[in-house]
Amino acid sequence: MAAVTLKGVFKSFGSTRVVHGVDIHIEDGEFCVLVGPSGCGKSTLLRMIAGLEEISGGDIEIGGRVVNKVPPKERDIAMVFQNYALYPHMTVFDNMAFSMKLAGESREKMRQRVEVAANILGLMEYLERYPRQLSGGQRQRVAMGRAIVRNPQVFLFDEPLSNLDAKLRVQMRTEIKELHQRLTTTSIYVTHDQIEAMTMADKIVVMNAGKTEQIGSPLELYDNPANLFVAGFIGSPAMNFLKGKLVRNGGGLQVQMADGLLLPAPGTAAQEGREVVVGVRPEHLLVRSDGVHAEVVVVEPTGADTQIFCKVGGTDITAVVRERHQFKPGEAIKLYPELTFLFDPSSGTRL
Amino acid sequence: MRRAAPLLKPQDTDAVRRLLENRNFLGFIFMLPGSVLLLLFLTYPLGLGTWLGFTDTKVGRAGQFVGLDNYQFLLGDAVARLSLFNTLFYTIVASSVKFALGLWLAILLNQNIPFKSAIRAVVLLPFIVPTALSAIAFWWIYDAQFSVVSWALMKMGLIHSYIDFLGDPWMARMSTIIANIWRGVPFVAICLLAGLQTIPPSLYEAASIDGAKPSQQFWYVTLPLLTPIIAVVMTFSVLFTFTDFQLIYVLTRGGPLNATHLMATLSFQRAIPGGALGEGAALATAMIPFLLAAILFSYFGLQRRAWQQGGSDK
């Protein structure tokens, strides 16, 4: 096990720079999730850590050793690929034992270590099967088994769940987390799904356009998004954004919404008269007699709670409420934001 | 005025319509043109050829059934036995080299090289040129007096007299084999290249993380995953080589001293210029067991693998 540190790592393909100077420190035993929209450079970053992609600049350290020029097999890492990358012509046993076979281990040792991993993953009865004869979830487990068998310093996961159906994905998510709690091997996990990131990570790195937007624990990102991008990306359904203005009212600053509603401004150093973007999470919108004027578009009861899609001055807004409402489309209601985040409209940074 | 009677009475048209809606009948109708062509131009000649092999037919004289006489004669005939040896030697050497060169070329072409598609197109050229034409070109290259190879080697001072490529039995065998390889490599290379491109790059990445050196990646990943395609390509390659005719006929006509006579050329030689239709047909028929053996070997030995069977791609 080892800590992983990235210092000013960047990557260019020709003249296009796809990763711009990334600094991340991942503690020994931590489960770190790199999350971001497609094309944000998260997979490239993971592949650079794995050594499958050369780095154009900066340093990557695994366990205190700079590995910039070290070939993948000597980095002491194991990787789980999105398409599993199982060798189709080898049985489950041979797939898992392949690295040991190359290392010239004895048959006895191979069997012993494969069986330990197969037991953890519930693969014992499939050892003689070929990948084609397995279901998606089983193949996924074999791919993890192949990683576990090597007992590496760091596990790398490249969107390992995106080829599975929704139900299996939730199940495997829990399994991977459980596995990490059991093995406590440093893990770096790439996904575009913020729910995976929130549920699995000790530390989330939100990436966008080749840069890190924010690094922190899941709840830190949820409670304290550093900018508009993180605020909109973390949380489901996504945060709502409305226009507002800072005004002085009595002793302190308040936020004035477009329809004149005054809300308490979260403590900021921003000056009066300034235009702001007001971010409100759907779960922080309350149906009350006071609040912003909204027009109901669709109501979706999901059982435990109800999602209300509405329009506020031309902007789509989602509210999630616990109580059950029978609103009709077109009905005028009022939504009161009980917790708001303020952002700078031009730079997107939190105020 | 009498109305002309309709061509089909109502109950007749019903019957025709029912027939045309019958799956089996319709299927038969659709297959008819194809089957007629196949029967007429493949099955009938093959059957006739096999039958002729059991008769003593000569050009201009209908033969009689003579049983296995032709085969018995051929077994005792030194030239026929030599042609069998030549064919096996020709096929084994040419196919092996075509496989090795083709695989090597395919791997080279699978790398990221500049002008990739242009180079791939150029590689196919020997395959596109009509065999007879390329054979004539080789005839000049191998000519005893005008050979460009001899000329070049002379100028380089490596040899002191022109090489008689097609005059010496073993030289002629090797020369024809080289011409065959030149023509056959592109087919093998392009097919194997297509096969290489079906191997997902992530398998190589996984292997490199697992600690496989490039040679081990080739041995443990590329080769096993390529076997099904190798089997198909090499079966075709062996069949084409075993039955080769044009190249030999243009280059050497089977000479010198029958050293390059393949079964196909000898069969033609005996049957048409020689007039012994029965004997030639028997020689041609004798090729069938070898071809069948090659197909069965590839089918059972290489093509069907347990890892390709069963399961869905879910």
Report on this model:
The complex is a heterodimer of chains A (351) and B (314). By secondary structure, chain A is of the alpha+beta class. Chain A has 2 domains: 4-233, P-loop containing nucleotide triphosphate hydrolases (Rossmann fold); 240-337, OB fold (Dihydrolipoamide Acetyltransferase, E2P) (Beta Barrel). Chain A has helices at 42-50, 92-102, 107-121, 136-149, 166-183, 194-200, 218-223, 228-233, and strands spanning 4-13, 16-26, 31-35, 57-62, 65-66, 77-80, 154-158, 186-191, 203-208, 211-216, 240-249, 252-257, 262-264, 275-280, 285-301, 306-312, 315-321, 332-337, 341-343. Chain A has a 6-stranded mixed sheet, with helices on both faces. A 5-stranded antiparallel sheet of chain A has the order 13-12-11-14-19. The longest helix of chain A has 18 residues, at 166-183. The two termini of chain A are 39 Å apart. Chain B folds into 2 domains: 12-41, no CATH class; 69-304, MetI-like (MetI-like fold). Chain B is mainly α. Chain B contains 15 helices and no strands. In chain B, 71% of the residues lie in helices and 0% in strands. The interface between A and B is medium-sized, with 30 and 25 residues.
Task: Please tag this protein with its features.
heterodimer, A: 351 residues, alpha+beta, Rossmann fold, OB fold (Dihydrolipoamide Acetyltransferase, E2P), 2 domains, six-stranded mixed β-sheet, five-stranded antiparallel β-sheet, 19 strands, 36% strand, elongated, B: 314 residues, mainly alpha, MetI-like fold, 15 helices, globular, disordered C terminus
